[in-house]
Amino acid sequence: MKVLQLGKYYAPYRGGMETHLSGLCAELQGRVELEVLVSHTAPRTVREVVHGVPVTRCAELVKVASTSLNPTLPLELSRRRYDLLHMHFPHPMAVMGYLGSVRPRRHGLVITYHSDVVRQKQLLKLYEPFMQRVLERADAILVGSPNYVETSEALRAHRARCHVVPFGIDVARFQRTPEREAAAAALRARYGGAPLLMGVGRLVYYKGFDHAIRALRQVEGAHLLLVGEGPLRAELEALARECGVAARVHFLGHLGDEALTTLYYACDAYVLSSVTRAEAFALVQLEALACELPVINTALDSGVPFVSRHEESGLTVPPGDEAALASAMRRMLAHPEQRRAWGAAGRARVLAEFTQSRMGERVLDVYRDVLAARQARG
Predict the structure, then answer these.
(1) 8 A C-beta contact, residue 245 and residue 266
(2) Minimal CB count within 10 Å: which of 25, 97, 316, 339?
(3) CA of 177: how far to CAs of 2, 101, 174, 269, 291, in Å?
(4) What is the pTM of this model?
């Protein structure tokens, strides 16, 4: 089976879609003939092999509204022969490249629908008619949670072809070891043994880090460690000073995998304060739970509360409700035995439902069904 993955970017570029795509390729490698086609972050096309996977990064001419423009992408698609094309949405350039490619379409088409376009309303008006044309041609549409299938207006007309395939992680990466325990203990000592809360993500509007910072005013003695960079960093730093918690809010920037895993083990709770359905799933919840770190998340109409369930692996609060968020933080920190029970339950749920290998098997089953159905139709 020849499978072409069409995504936005690929490792070592980091992001939710990119983490998912590289994990999926790790599972598919050796089981299908695999190739990846994505955008580069520079105005030149690069062909390379990443961990055994052939990757073509198409030259990026310019970026408009966070969308790469890759003039050579339609040609790259037209040159290739494959049994199945797996596209990752939202991806306006992939949609236009697919519709503009010239090769007759005798292949199967699978789409992973990661999230709706939420904030860029003007882009959506231009993009949606073309996106709907491609969704109509899809043999199968993969969605990370049942919540998103039910609440996405864009998927309403296509629900009969939607398959819930939860995203997964390589749990082995987060195994507890004596070395990590020692590193976590040293990290806790660096903050004087204070209660530690953490969040991970780009410093952008929908992550709701401003609400977490304001909530921290009502959580005596706790520190909030934020991992990631983004356009709102200076604004969030100013907010922490304004709220009088600058000494307890720490902006750690980008961390490597090992440093991030150590942080999961050092902290008392993970805080996911996102405020819009642009946060469609939040793979970082799985990473935290794999380290037995309980999660405080928000009751978005997306896959977020599906991943970590209220009173099962943590607490869920209304998005943007700073009083409720502060109350959840205080409750989490005041009850260490409950924290440990939620963390253990969360890891058990990850092992049962959200492993990378389970995700890979589910995706392969869809591939086989799609190609069998197309063969049966002749």
Answers:
(1) no
(2) 339
(3) 39, 50, 9, 19, 11
(4) 0.91
How far is Cα 201 from Cα 248, in angstroms, rounded to an integer? 18
What is the band of 100 on the pLDDT scale with cuts at 50, 70, 90? confident
Q: How far apart are CA 5 and CA 25, in angstroms?
A: 9
User: If DSSP codes are grouped into helix, strand and coil, which group holds residue 182?
Assistant: helix
pLDDT of 62: 86
The C-alpha angle 318, 322, 328, rounded to 5 degrees, equals 70
Average pLDDT over residues 336-342: 98
43, amino acid identity: P
Q: How far apart are CA 307 and CA 351, in angstroms?
A: 12
d(CA 37, CA 7): 6
Partners of residue 335 on adjacent β-strands: none
DSSP 235: H
Amino acid 303: pLDDT: 95
Asked whether 167 and 359 are in contact (CB, 8 A), the reply is yes
Shortest CA distance to 270 belongs to which of 256, 283, 284, 258?
284
What residue ranges in 107-244 does DSSP mark as E strands?
108-113, 140-143, 162-164, 196-200, 223-227
What is the number of alpha carbons within 13 Å of residue 219 lying toward its C-beta?
29
Query: Residue 119 has what pLDDT?
Result: 72
Q: Which residue has the higher pLDDT, 186 or 90?
A: 186
CB 347 within 8 Å of CB 290? yes
pLDDT tens digit sequence for 108-123: 999 999 999 877 666 6
Cβ(231)–Cβ(256) below 8 Å: no
- Nearest-Å Rg of the Cα atoms of the chain is 21
**4-16: per-residue pLDDT in tens?**
999 999 998 888 8
Neighbours of 93 (CB within 10 A): 21
* d(C-alpha 40, C-alpha 49), whole Å: 14
Amino acid (one-letter) located at 191: Y
- Which residues neighbour 112 within 8 Å (Cβ) at sequence distance 6 or greater? 20, 86, 87, 88, 89, 141, 142, 143, 165
- Residue pointed to by tokens 């549409």: 141
